[in-house]
Design brief:
alpha+beta, 9 strands, globular
Length: about 300
């Protein structure tokens, strides 16, 4: 059922590895093992855009990062990412973002970037390989608890009162657009509360979901349309942690274990009480790099 999702995900990875080498449909089809026709048709069906459009959008996104974060000449960046000239890159920039590369370099602003697509997910993996020999588990452990201090900071995000969790949040917002804007602001993010560090806030005693990025307390830059900025004081957090794991194979199990412990833990056993009336709940989800961390703010019991 999901064989094509897996094949297209491999294709997306291949594109990422070859963006600077003018990848062609024929080369990709050989790498994936399907005909160019099926690759093209299925890519459009599953990703929702043509291969050509997707590659163009990813090249433009890579160009944005290079213009923002390096001192390379704009002409060299244009050639590096497949544009015929600096003027061609400028036209693409103007069409997508309403400014030239030179203006953007002087004053980077939030823009909606095309991020690498994810079309093969843990639930697909479980269905595709259910009962098969490939279902070898990585080394899972029981989550443990530590304490982390997060300084005062600001958060630029979308606080969605209609969403009870991550999945519901995207029922109301364009994932590609929101995540692309957040990614474009990585250069101004807070070192502790970084991009895509989302979580929960309370409305009338019920946990609702937010998504965005933390920025330093002295941030006074632009806030993208559809987002707002809020301030949060310094606080200690109980951090419920599972170390690195295989996202496709173990994500559901790991998140279930950590979430269950975090939501049902009594902080009084450690001399704390929740501080969630003034601070929000965060989670960091970077499976193969960090693992999964669920952070709930606390204060010492007086």
């Amino acid at each position: 059922m999901y064989e094509w999702n897996q094949a297209i995900q491999k294709m997306i990875y291949w594109i990422e590895d070859n963006l600077e080498d003018n990848p062609t449909l024929l080369e990709m089809s050989k790498a994936i093992g399907y005909s160019p026709y099926y690759c093209s048709t299925k890519f459009h069906e599953i990703v929702g855009m043509t291969i050509k459009s997707y590659i163009s959008a990813r090249r433009l996104a890579k160009s944005v990062f290079a213009i923002r974060d390096t001192d390379e000449r704009i002409l060299d960046i244009a050639i590096k990412y497949g544009y015929s000239s600096q003027e061609a890159l400028t036209r693409a920039f103007m069409t997508a973002f309403g400014c030239t590369p030179a203006v953007y370099r002087k004053r980077p602003c939030p823009v909606a970037l095309q991020l690498p697509k994810a079309v093969f997910h843990p639930d697909h993996f479980e269905i595709l390989y259910q009962g098969g020999a490939t279902m070898n588990k990585t080394c899972l452990t029981e989550p443990h608890i530590t304490i982390e201090y997060i300084p005062a900071h600001k958060y630029i995000g979308i606080w969605e009162e209609r969403a009870n969790h991550y999945g519901e949040f995207w029922d109301y917002h364009d994932c590609d657009k929101v995540c692309g804007i957040i990614e474009s602001m990585g250069n101004v993010s807070d070192v502790i509360v970084g991009p895509h560090m989302a979580g929960f806030f309370y409305v009338n005693g019920k946990a609702k979901y937010f998504y965005g990025l933390g920025v330093p307390y002295d941030y006074d830059g632009e806030v993208p349309d559809g987002f707002e900025i809020r301030e949060f004081p310094a606080s200690y957090y109980l951090k419920f942690v599972h170390p690195t794991f295989d996202f496709l194979k173990d994500n559901c199990e790991v998140m279930g274990k950590v979430d269950n412990l975090a939501w049902n833990f009594d902080p009084k056993t450690m001399g704390y009480e929740w501080n969630e009336d003034v601070c929000q709940i965060y989670h960091r989800h970077y499976p193969e790099v960090l693992g999964y961390e669920f952070l709930r703010p606390v204060k010492k019991i007086k």
